[in-house]
Amino acid sequence: MNVRSLAVGSAIAALMVATSLVGSKAVMAQAMGDKIIVAHRGASGYLPEHTLESKALAYQMGVAYLEQDLAMTRDDQLVVVHDHYLDRVTDVADKFPNRARADGRYYVIDFTLDEIKSLNFTEGFNLEYGQRVQVYPKRFPMFGSTFKIHTFAEEIEFIQGLNATMGRDIGLYVETKAPWFHKQEGKDISKATLEVLRQYGYTTKDSNVIFQTFDFPDLKYVKTELMPALGMDLKTVILLTDNESKETYELVDGKWQPYDFNYLLDPQNFAEIAQYADGMGPAYKMLFDLEQTKRGHIVVNDLVKNAHAHGMVVHPYTIRKDALPDYVSNVDELFQAVLIDADADGVFTDFPDLGVAFLQRAAK
Ligand code: G3P
Ligand code: CA
């Protein structure tokens, strides 16, 4: 079964309501609005995140979208990697021991593509008392097998090749990582990302790609300057987090300040946000009243309802069966809470097979 076909009746009803509320904007948003599963960094619960191997596995699991997180190299190449550091997921500290910055981190932007391709990629780890400790101990063994980092273009060619051989049309869900940081370093990661997407034929809202970012100031720049200049208009999602994460910075009076995510969480601002974003990507916990929510008693807040009222879809992140919150007792309860109780339009998960299976059961 196609996961997009879930609840066609309710989608049509929602389409009619949304259309009456906000016109053609809602039509576009709801067109991407059937329930979907997004492979978070590929099938990263089973193979090291963002490897082409993890993308192939997720592809076969039946997802609608494969996620790409992007960073830029010293020689201006886009590589598919979650952090703008290399040290959590590679042997960079062994191969280039003198290339860390003062903070001890090895930055993607300080290495050429050739240097990055010489690294071995692995399941993620933290350093504890100088020892590498795997973040998710039951996942793929650290430094098991051989994996490499690849470019964004290489991943697009891989997915388009699979689409050709498998007779499917699986989409890209592309996140520019830390545009503010790349700007500080003199690089425009969003422009580079759009140029690659255009080169591979992704130019309109009908193209099977969603452009996502935590950086709302950069999203405004993308929508009002970059996309028009490049003759593009892609679907976009603004990612939401709390202020503790210090995920994004913005220039205020010439100084870089942490971005205040409270602006994006205030429904009074949703009309303005919806001018730039076709959807929202909150952490899934943001869908619930966490003061009242307990195991067996999920209390949903108004985030999804408010987003829908402004024609935006909601794709929360990230369901992990090996990192469940205490208000659910198994992963299906979390899929139920996010996709059915809170009525999100899709969800990012490290375990795409479990998400697809949940939607298939729900559709029955
Ligand atoms: O982009 C959605 C989700 O991936 C956001 O979290 O930190 O895994 O990129 P992160
Ligand atoms: Ca991401």
What is the topology?
Layout: H1 8-22, H2 24-31, E1 36-39, H3 52-61, E2 65-72, E3 78-80, H4 92-95, H5 113-117, E4 125-128, E5 131-134, H6 152-166, E6 171-176, H7 179-184, H8 189-199, E7 209-213, H9 216-230, E8 235-239, E9 249-252, E10 255-258, H10 262-265, H11 270-273, E11 279-281, H12 303-309, E12 313-314, H13 331-341, E13 346-349, H14 352-363
Helix pairs in contact: 1-2, 3-6, 8-9
The structure holds SN-glycerol-3-phosphate (G3P) and calcium ion.
Task: Briefly characterize the structure.
With 364 residues, this protein is of the alpha/beta class. The chain has 14 helices and 13 strands.
Can you offer a commentary on this structure?
The protein has 364 residues and is an alpha/beta fold. 35% of the residues lie in helices and 15% in strands. The chain is built from 14 helices and 13 strands. It has helices spanning 8-22, 24-31, 52-61, 92-95, 113-117, 152-166, 179-184, 189-199, 216-230, 262-265, 270-273, 303-309, 331-341, 352-363; strands spanning 36-39, 65-72, 78-80, 125-128, 131-134, 171-176, 209-213, 235-239, 249-252, 255-258, 279-281, 313-314, 346-349. Strands 1, 2, 3, 6, 7, 8, 11, 12 and 13 form a 9-stranded mixed beta sheet that branches. The protein has a two-stranded antiparallel ribbon with strand order 4-5. A two-stranded antiparallel ribbon has the order 9-10. Helix 3 links the parallel strand 1 (36-39) and strand 2 (65-72). Helix 1 (8-22) runs antiparallel to helix 2 (24-31) and helix 8 crosses helix 9 (216-230). It is globular. The N and C termini lie close together (10 Å). Bound molecules: SN-glycerol-3-phosphate (G3P) and calcium ion.
